[in-house]
Amino acid sequence: MATSPCSSSGVSSSSSSGLGADAGLEIRTRSVEQTLVPLVSQITTLINHKDKPKRSDKTLQAIQRVGQAVNLAVGRFVTVGEAIANENHELKEEMSVACIEARRAGETIAQLTDVASLDHPESDSHITIFTDKTGVVKAARLLLSSVTKVLVLADRIVIKQIITSRNKVLATMDQLEKVSSFQEFVQIFSQFGNEMVEFAHLTGDRQNDLKDEKKKARMAASRAVLEKCTMMLLTASKTCLRHPDCESARINKDGVFHRMRLALEQVIEIVTDSRPNGENEMAPISIYSGIKEFKNKVEGLRENLYFLSKENLSTMLEVILEHTEDFTDSAYTSHEHREHILELSKQAKMELEQLVSVWMQAQNQKTKDLMEDLEVAILKTCQCMNELKREVHSAATSLAADLLKYHTDHMVLKALKITGVEGNLEAVAEYTCKLSEQKEQLVEMCRLLRHVSGTEPLEITCIHAEDTFQVTGPQIISAAETLALHPSSKIAKENLEVFCEAWESQLSDMSLLLREINDVFEGRRGEKRVYLSLPRPGKHNANLKALKPVKLDTEEQAKIAKLGLELHLLTSDVDSETEKWEDQENEIVQHGQGMSSMAYSMYLFTRGEGLLKTTQDLFHQAEIFATEGTKLASALHALSDQVHDDKPLLLLEAEKLISMCKQLQVTAKASAQGKSATFTKVDACILKTRNVMTLLCQLLPLCCKLLRKNKAGNGCLKPAPPWKEDKIRTGTNARTPERRVDTFGIKSLENHVTNMTFLESK
C-alpha cells in the first residue's frame, strides 16, 4: 500500500497545512520515513505560525533565520544527492531533476521568509510569508516531494546493492556445485563465506528497516534458512567430494543448494516487492484471522444494517468452518477436541441463522424490540465464535506441547547416528521410517499452530517451521544413509551431525514459538519477539542453540559497578524531585516514579542482587523502562500544548527522551551471542538507562515549575506565540552517538535531513 511521507505519526499535522509528498512515491522503509519527520515538522511549524497584527523584531528575525536555515540545509542535502547521482548513472537524470526542484523550493522559502529587514512586511511590495501564504505552502509541498524523491531514489541504490550481492553469492554457488577437488572447493568456499557475510550485513539492515511486519518476518525466515544452510552446504559438499559415487550424498547436497537458492530468491522478492511472473502472493487464511474479520462484520451491524449482505456473512462462516476441518480431520486431534469443535461449528451455523432472521426484520422495521433482539443475536454469535477460537487454540497448543515434550530426548536422531556408524543399513531404514513419522507429526503441528498464531508474523514463522521440518527430515535421512554406506567416514558423520543439530534447533525454536502464541492469546504480548537465530555481521554459526540467560560473574560486576552506582545516585535524585510535587497522582510523576523503580532494579542487578536474576531479565526490564519513558514523553507533549514560556524547550526535551528510549529499546532487543557480546550489551543497556535518568532529573523540575506557575495564575498556560527565539534549540543532541554512515548514500542523506531542524541553537 502506497503511503505518503506524511502518514507517520510524527508528520500527520502536515496534512492540515496542505503539505504532502508525491502520492506516487511509496515509502517502504523506516529510515526514509523517519528522515522526513524533522523536515515536515519544522516546515509545518513555519506555515502554521499564527498571524498577529503586531509582530516583534524577535519574531521576524526568527522567521528569517528559519528560512535561511532551510535553504542552507537543502543546499547541503542536494550536494549529497548530486554526488550520489554522479556515482549511479542509471539514476542520474531522475536524481538531478529532484535535486534541482529541492534547491529551487529551498530558495523560494528563503525569499518568502526574508522579513526581518522590513518594518511593515505586509504593506510592502515585497512578497513575503505574510502576504503570500499560498506560495509558502506550494514551495513547501515541492520541497517535501523532491526530498522524498531523492531519498527513495537513494533507497533504490540500497536495493541494487542487495541484488548485486545476491548475484555474487549465486555465481559462487554455481562454482561450488561443480568443483571436483578439495583444494578448489576450499578456495571457492572461502570466497563464498565472505560474500555471505556481506549479504548478511545488507539484508540484516534491510530487515530492521522494513515498515511491513509481515515482510520483516518473511525476511527473518529466509535469512535463518541461509544461515543454517551455510554449514550444511559445507559438510554436504565435502561428503559428496569424498564419496563422489554415492547417490544419497549427491541427493543430500542437491537439497541444500536448492533450498539456499529458494531463500535467496525470496529475499529479493521481499526487497523489490515483486513476485515471479507478476503473480500475487496468496497468503493462506487462518482460523484466527477469519474469526476476527467475521466478528468485525457482525458487530458492524450495530452501526449499519445495510453495509453487507447475508450471503457475505454466510460465505465468511463457511470458509472458517472449512478450515476447522484441518483439526477435525487430523489424526493427531484428540476425540474430545474433535467433538467440541464439531459441536461449536454446528452451533455457529444456528446462531448465524437466528442473527440473519432478526437482521432482515430490522431492515424492514426498526422497532425497539427488534433492535434489542438483534443485539442479543450479535452477542450470542460473537460468543460462539470466541468459544470456537478458544477450542481450536486449545487443540493446537496441547498437541504442540505434547509432541515437543515427547521428542525432547531426540532418541530417533541418536539411534540414526549410532546405527549409521555401525553401518547397519537395516536399522537405519527402520529409524528413518520413525523419523518420517515424527516429521509428519511436526508438520501437522505447525499447520494447526498457524491457524491460532494470532498475528501475521507468527503465522509466517509457523509456515517457515513447517517448511524446515519438511525439508530437513529427508536431508537427515539421506545423510544417515550415506554414513551407513561409509561408516568409517568422518566427514559423513560430521555431515549427519550438522543436519541433526538443525532439526534440534528448530524444535527448540518451536518451544519459544508456542510460548509466543500463548502470550498473544492471553493478551500478554501483541507482537512476537525475534527468536529465530539470525546471522549477525561477521558471524555464521550453523550450530544453532537456544540462547540461555546468564548471570554476570564477579569480574563483570566489578567492571560495571561504577556505572551501577551512578544509576543508583540518579534514582535518588529522581525520587527527591518527585517528592516535591504536590500532586502525587500527576501522570508525569507516576511515570517518573515507575522509571526510577525500574532503574533501581537494574542497579541492584549490577550488584548481583534484586529480582532481576539473569541478563535476559535485565534486557526485558530495559525494554519496559524504555516503553515507560515513551509514555512519559506523551505526557510531556500534552503539557506542552498548554504552556507558554517554555514550550519549545519542553518539546525539545520530550523529543530527546523519545530518541533515547528508542535507542535503549533497539539495544535491549539486539541479539548477543557469547559472554563478551552479552556483557557489552548489558553495559550498553545500563549506560543508556543512566542517560535517560539524567534527562529525567532535568525534566521533572522544569515540569513542576510550569505547573506551579499555572497554579499561581501568572498566565503560564496560554496559546503559544509563533516563535520564541530565545527558547528554541536545535533538535540534534550532541550526546547522541552518530549513526554509522554507509557509503551507498541513504545514511548520509538521512544525516543531512536530520539537521534540517532549522532553528538556531540556544
Automatic annotation (TrEMBL):
Lineage, opening ranks: Eukaryota, Metazoa, Chordata, Craniata, Vertebrata
Assigned keywords, A-Z: Cytoplasm
Domain of life: Eukaryota
Similarity field: Belongs to the vinculin/alpha-catenin family.
Broad class of the protein's primary localization: cytoplasm
Region (Disordered): 1-20
GO molecular function, one term: cadherin binding
Gene name tied to this protein: Ctnnal1
UniProt protein name: Alpha-catulin
